[in-house]
Every structure is written in structure tokens, then in C-alpha cells.
Amino acid sequence: MDKTPEHLFRTIPGWFGSQGETELKNDEHYLRATIVLGVAMMSSCFALLVMIGLFFSPYPSNPEHKLAALGITAVVLLCYMASLIYYKYRQTIIGPSNLYATGVLVATTLPGILTGGFLSSPNLQIIIVVPVWAFLMAGNRNGLMWSAITLLAISAYYVAELLGVRFPQTIPANAEATLKLITWSIAIALVVLCLYLYEVNLVRLTERLQKEQSKLAHEATHDSLTGLLNRKSLLQSVEDAIAAHQKFQHQAAILYIDLDNFKPINDTHGHAMGDEVLTIVTSRLESCVKSSDTVARIGGDEFVIVLPNIQGKDISSRIAQQVLDSLHQKIVLNNKEFEISASIGVAFIPKDSDSADTILSLADQAMYRAKREKNAICYSEAS
């Protein structure tokens, strides 16, 4: 059973709705969305706990300072909640990421007004999370924007203190070290989390790229309907058989197969039915040969079998006959019976030729002679 965080959020109605299907169409987007939702929810809970703690705490002792602290925490909580609501109704990632970054920026800069400013505020170091988060969740443009905003916020504190502005310290002296330890731990944990998420995204992207490359490579060498090798790959298989003869004196046979009575199936019952028939034909052809043999589809109803390392003409004749017998069996699809047969032309390496193009041409010519009789086997005239 899938126990991933993505799965848990996908089970919540409305969070991954139909509006977001276009954007959230792969695992990378689901992962990003899950991160935004999870972090925003946890941060909202933490901000709420901080508000409750401030309300009942004797610190800050100055009522105005306490009211300011509660107001800052309320703004932070609203930013976090807004990111959740924004995502729920818009189903996009960048907006909620920017709203969350806003909340973190407020949570790390404004408390400095009440906690000693640039040098003494225990919150300010967490600000490094803002640009890191923005780069990972909202993209390069937003990452650069938040980097600039972060730098401006820190510079504002620095300039204010250079100008002689002094900020009150509302944190008790005996609690400053503990708070700094906590905030540094939070900052490190968040940066580590962001780096971990970057690594996860990179791994998933690499895996998806490799799958796409494998898919494209397969499509370039295989027939899309049957999964058999295509003409390009067939030529390589014939070249390999020729190379095996030249190196080990192995003989090989080429069976050029054309289906009889296939066109009426397409014309009468449609191409979808014809495709199903071709799929069955493929299975029957593969059942007639060994795994070391090659079966390729080179046209609508044309197939080629390459038999490497055969010990004489009798083996190829036996396999060709097996192919004829197998294809001549009735095909039943959707309560309809179809009867097809095949015409097969056979040519040999090296007896007929040791050129890939020539040997295929000779097998093709032999197939056309077999086509005159239908359900027949003909050999290259050189044989």
C-alpha cells in the first residue's frame, strides 16, 4: 500500500482537484505540492502555538510590546493559512510558495524590532531559508526576487543600527541563549530539508529523463503497434548475421512474410480490428522461433524473420512451414472468425548474398512468387 506523503494528501478531497490536473500531471508536481501543503500546515500549527504562548506568557512585560508580538504572529499565521487556501482553490504551486515565503520573512525580520535588532535577534538567521525555499519551490525568477528582498531586509536593520536606532530587547537574559539555540536549530533543519527536497527532485527528474530516453530509444527501433523490431533494426540484425558468417562461417536464413487476405479485414471491420489481428499474428510468429531469432514488422502486413546460425536449408523450411500452419489457424475476435494465410519468401546467407539490402530484396522477390499461389513458400532463385 502506498504510504507516501503524496498519497496521504491525495486522499484529502479537494486538495488535488480536477483544476490542478494540468499542472499536477507528474510526480514532481505532486511532490512539490505535498511539500508546500505539509510545511505550511506545520508552520501554521507552530505559529498558533506561539500566539497562545505569548498570550499567556508574562513576557513581554510591556503591554504594547506584547500586542506588537501578537500582531506579528497573527500576520505570520495569516500568511501560512493563506498559502493553504490559495492552493486549495487555485491548484498552483508558485502562489502558495510565495505566500509562505512572505510569512517566513515576516516571522524572521519583524520580531527583531522587539528582540534587539540586527545583532541580538535570535530569529534573523532563519531568514536564509526564504531564498532557498523560493528557488526550490517557486523557480529561479522568484528565488532571485526573494534573495533581493532578503538582502534588503537585513540591510535595513544594519543601516538602522548604523544610524543609531536602538531596538528594545524583550527576551529575558536567561532565555536568550536557549532561544538562539532553538532558532539556529530550526534554520539548519529547514535548510537541510530544502537541500534534501532538491536532491529528491533531482533524482526523480533524472529517473524520469532516463525513462523518457529509454522510451524514445525503444520507439526508434521498434514497431509501435506490435513491439517488434522495425525496418531499421531489422537491417542491423541482418548485418549481424552477415558478420557472424564472416567470423564464424555461420549460415543464416531470411524469411520474408506477407499476409494473405488481410486487407479485407481492415476494409470491412476497421483498422482497430486489423490491429488486433496483427497483434495475434505477432504472437504466433514469435511462438515459431527461438529467442535468439529476430522477428520484425517492416510494413502494414509484412514481417521478416532472421534465423541466424542455421544448419542447412531443412531447418528454415521447417520453421517456414510452422509459420504457415500457425497463421492459417482461425482467429476469433469479438465473436467474429477471420481466416488469413501467408506467403513466404526465403533467402540464405551467404548462399544467395552477403549484402543486407540484396538478401532482403531476394527474399522479397521470392515472397512475391509465393504470393501468386498464396499460403506458399518460395525460395530465392539462387537457392
TrEMBL record:
Q: Which GO terms describe its molecular function?
A: catalytic activity
For this UniProt record, the keywords arranged alphabetically read as follows: Membrane, Transmembrane, Transmembrane helix
- Membrane spanning stretches: 35-56, 68-87, 99-118, 124-139, 146-165, 177-198
Taxonomically, the superkingdom here is Bacteria
Question: Which stretches are annotated as coiled coil?
Answer: none
Name the cofactor(s) required for activity, per the record.
Answer: Mg(2+)
Name the Pfam families on file: GGDEF (PF00990)
* The protein, known as: GGDEF domain-containing protein
Taxon lineage: Bacteria, Pseudomonadati, Pseudomonadota, Gammaproteobacteria, Cellvibrionales
